[in-house]
Design a protein that fits this description.
The chain is mainly β and about 800 residues long. Among the domains are: about 460-535, Immunoglobulin-like, CATH 2.60.40.10; about 545-620, Immunoglobulin-like (Sandwich); about 635-710, Immunoglobulin-like; about 725-805, Macroglobulin (MG2) domain (Immunoglobulin-like), CATH 2.60.40. The chain is built from five helices and 65 strands. The strands form 17 sheets. Strands 1-34-33-32-31 form a five-stranded mixed beta sheet, with no helix packed on it. The radius of gyration is 42 Å and the shape is elongated. One of its GO terms (cellular component) is membrane. It holds the Pfam family He_PIG.
Amino acid sequence: MKKIALRIHLFTIGFLLNLIVPTYLLAQLPIKITNTPTTGSDPYGFVTYKGRLYFSASSSTDGPEIYSTDGTPGGTVLLKNINTLPGKGSEVGSLVIYNDKLYFGATSATGGGLWVTDGTTAGTTLVKDLSSVQFSNPILLAVANNKLFFVDKFSPSGDNKLWISDGTTAGTKLLSEALGGLDVGRGPSSMRAINNRLFYATGNTNDLWVTDGTVAGTHFVKGGEVMDGGFGSRFFNFIGQLTQFEDKLMFRGYDQSKTGDEPWISDGTPEGTYSLDLTPGAGVSLIGTYRYYNGKMYFYFPSAGLWSTDGTQAGSKQVKNVPSAERFTVFNDKLYFVSNTNELWMSDGTEAGTVLVKKLTSGLVSQMIVSGNLLYFSARTSSNNSDLELWRSDGTDAGTWKVSLFSPDATDILGKVKTLVDANGQLYFTAQPTGLSSPELYYLRPNQAPVAPVIANATGTVGQPFFQAIPSFTDPEGLPLFYSVSGLPANLTFSGGGGGIIAGTPTASGIFTITVSARDINGLTTSTTYILSINPAGGSAFALQAPTYNCATGAITFNTSGGDGSPIEYQAAGITNWTTNPYQSVDHDLITANDVQPITLQARQHGVVVTYVWDLKAYCTNPPTPQPPLPGAFTLMAPTYNCSTGAITFNTSGGDGSPIEYQAAGITSWTTNPTRFVDQELRTANDTKPLTLQARQNGKMVSYVWDLRASCSGARLAAEETTTLSVRVLGNPVAGETAAVEISGAAGQSLQFVVSDMQGRQISKDRIEQASVIQKHDVRISRAPGVYLLKVSTPTQTGTARLVRQ
């Protein structure tokens, strides 16, 4: 596939001073999409189709052919070389979308014709060969009433002809032929599709016609011959500016015998076609272009300023007497236009709401479009310079800037902008680089915000010198950035930009959230934060120490030192998510795995995160030797245990008399009640390991390793059953996040409820100390639909039930 030679030009900053217009957008970076050395590719005829921009352009060896682009040089390709004659082009033009395909006129080696493409080379084919019409090339393509209309550029009679097509060869015919020889007027010079009708003005006769592609819907509307014509024998001396006005046509017509040059309205019938005679008599109004906005049509009336009309004589009135008004564009629900006194205006349709936005330097605005969320226009900004420069506006004075476009090696398109194009909310434009005879196509890449690095949390101490280097942000355009830092504690300051230093001697302790920001030269700012902890003088930094761990039970305690006294959270993979409880248990899989890797324990306090890498296997291979308690110290002793019922009482000695809490995996979480029950599974399992009982008092924690199997010495682990435990789900499947269950056969006994999924993961756990004869209880299940297992246990029995969550 042949391509235009491609390269990328990224345009860097240009530092300019201008005493009249001081506001610049200094870093818009256009990508040069086409590149034809010496001559330029001269792109034109733009249309967006299937997310790509299609257009006609020339290469260094061929004339105009059809291309498409995704906005990158590598994604800009020749769709098809239609005219294969050396040095010739197909003169592609008038691209229009019809029935999800793109139709256009082109000239091949044998002559002109109607072509169609689906966006692929193979799908780019000739619909109708018009070579018999003296190399005619279709122009003025338009779609109305689900039909495609076009005009042949040349014909043997020298008069353009109107054609109709359904997208097939057989269905592409002269309109008069398709309608059985019906008179359809002379060749159109302009057309406008409005809803299901096509209005067109005939070129040689200046008549207005309308068609919907049928015999009944095709007829003459206004014009014809007159007997008393002053400058000729036709009713209209001129017809132009065909514009849609809701379901009607508004056009400019020069009725030389009566009203002169005035706005006209037509509903497609002779009686519904009339002049808005703004200048009574056969004078000349010389109105400008029309623009529809908020239910009215707006236009400029010389010597009378900005006007609007609702389509009636009475509803046509002056909005405001402005110097002139042209380049009408609707943006942000307002009507924008420019005057010949080099001013950008905005109107809401009222006199008070028609205001000057910005006074430009001496120069004429050539084109104005909306792209993305901005208004773009090209304008001359020097009375001595006929070239056009690119501007952008957000609709305000302060937000209206000239876009300075500079290349790394030369200002080769500064002031050379030609055509502005919006495609998918992105701005494309053509500009003629210095030394070329025609323009190239560029894509204006949107300015991107700086990218922030990760800044690590830092720690300092009151009275001690502190230094911290701030890493540089990255600007996607590679342009300078301006840095600022906020939230610093007293006596610390930031100096420099990227790679700058925060330095000083802090005078106050605390936890500070520091914000580092970088702003590009267009004003886009990116910020990132980190935590700076300043410890009191003589204090120690927050640190995570080696944990306390029981190799038999998996009980683990996170240990920290230092810090600022605020709450601490703990986390470790395979142990716990973030929690304020330092007492946790290591997952059974980690305890028993032969290849378990060292575990990273984490603790955080006021945003400061510290870590400790702990080797579980090494710890249990050679655990620390426990120190015997001091006389009179707080101590946990052997429990009192009933082998038949599973009732257990924690026993302690010593201490300071303050409240005591108790905990043991498989028995209870932390509680001040020393009498609990051992889980049924632990009492009946043949491989039950020794349990680590724990007690804590006033921050002091002690433990006792207790061998349940040895304590019972083979005694009966379950009492004789007199009543069978029954578990019944009240309403299964379950619609909510809780399930109602009914338990019988457990009167007077404790009940434990455990819900787990089918992979054995525990969902919820609950306990009732003393059950009634018929005990009802709600158990919590997961939000996710599925099947869950409910296990209900007394000291002597276990019952199960399946829960189905809808």
